[in-house]
Amino acid sequence: MSSELYRQIILDHFRAPHHAQALKHADIEGTKTNESCGDSVRVQLHFEKDILADVAFITGGCAVSIAAASVLSDMIVGKKRSELASITPEELLKELGIKPAPARAQCALLPLSALLSALKK
Amino acid sequence: MLDVRSDFDVLKNNPGLAYLDSAASSLRPQSVIEAMDEYYTHYSANVHRGIHHLSEHATDKFENAREKVGAFIGSPNPRQIIFTRNATDSSNIVWRGWASKFLGKKSRILITMMEHHAHFVPTLEFCKETGAILDIAPLTEDFRLDESKFLELLEKKPDFVALIHASNVLGTINNVRPLIEAAHRAGAVVMLDMSQSVPHLAVDVRALDPDFAFFSGHKMLAPSGIGVLWVKEKYLEQLSPVTYGGSMIAQVHSDEFALNDPPLRYEAGTPPIAEVIGLGAAVEYMAKIGWDAFGDHESEIIAYTLASLKKLPAVRIFGPSNTKERLGVFAFHVAGVPAHDVASILDEHNVAVRAGFHCAQPVHEAYKAGPSVRASTYIYTTKTDIDQLVVGLAKAQQVFK
Description:
The structure holds two protein chains of two kinds. By secondary structure, chain A is α+β, with helices and mostly antiparallel strands. Chain A has helices at residues 8-15, 63-76, 81-84, 89-96, 102-119, and strands at residues 28-33, 40-48, 51-60. Chain A is built from five helices and three strands. The longest helix of chain A has 18 residues, at 102-119. Chain B has 14 helices and 15 strands.
């Protein structure tokens, strides 16, 4: 069964999301919710010196936002704190391999927006 | 079954579309669009002020729409029809223009867990601002208002009751007449949200007897940007305007002004003239079909949709699963597929539904339910549309298998 939005990568990450378990020691946290659909993403970050050692995205929502959180987590672990803030929506969508319509792009970008708001704390 | 699809150019322009999102906004028949076009192309002048014949014609059409809308809901007098932006605007006008004067810290307010955010949010805000006490009537396991709990809460003598006529999520139609009667006996003033009922049911404000009532045009074949607030005669003078300016005054001097009479008192500034005329045309269109034909069509579609959804084991309907006292509004969950993903896959199959909380998050939380998918039907809905929904739902399950 083929679907433009629901490529294998989305389905795989949805079924077994990476970094989806809450951290025992988080240095900073952030939460974002999408009013229109009720999705919410909580992100926890744990740094060792300046490097992101571990991350958790606790996501209650659709497959697109869960998969996006999972893919994003793989993109950022091991990066410097200063590099995290410069991740763009385009980079994340490219990594996910989808070009969603604006309403669904919000779902895909919710984890990134949670990350960016946590970094501002 | 009704066959009105040729009245809707939007359906011709979207071949193959199963539009099942009418509870969010209905489609509009050509007669409504033409009535608005005619205003712009033949007499597009301002109302209530011009001496020239174009303005007089526009005013006639505008006030004629008020009369039609009033007659449509059984208003004793057209002046009880106040044109607003939408249902939410209407609700806010009552909270700001009436409740703020007559209710306060010691007041008690009763609402139900079924309310749309148009009732819920202004109520919460008012209680937060004033310290008024809020009671919320719970719902039953079979997705209906717990009437006995509602009546019990009336024993606490609320001053104000805000009640929804029909749920925009569950589809449940509340038997509001005895509830309003009981609320009045308890001494409460009652506001009724008729946003989902007026588009689908013969509603008579004299019989139901609310003190304030409201609905939106865009859910009943009329344009967006126009809503109605109906006010019982007794409260027409008690209400204060919440917007001041042109039209709503009788005279203005540099140091004082006098208010115009209702309803213009509550319609400051130039109103949405074409939209009011469009609402009048929508009401005329509905009246021409007649409630019997309307009801027969909707009942058949409701029964067919319930039967079709029940055949899908993964689908759990979030609302009454029988046809009794319910609208063609079907919120549901699909096992293993989040609501937004269901809606996206349905969209890929040309089926338009809504996903999320549908501006009624508390009712979801009351049942510990996550976001739902909502398919909603109207007079142009066919069994083919429902079949297409069923095929789309099967595909959603296949994708997520």
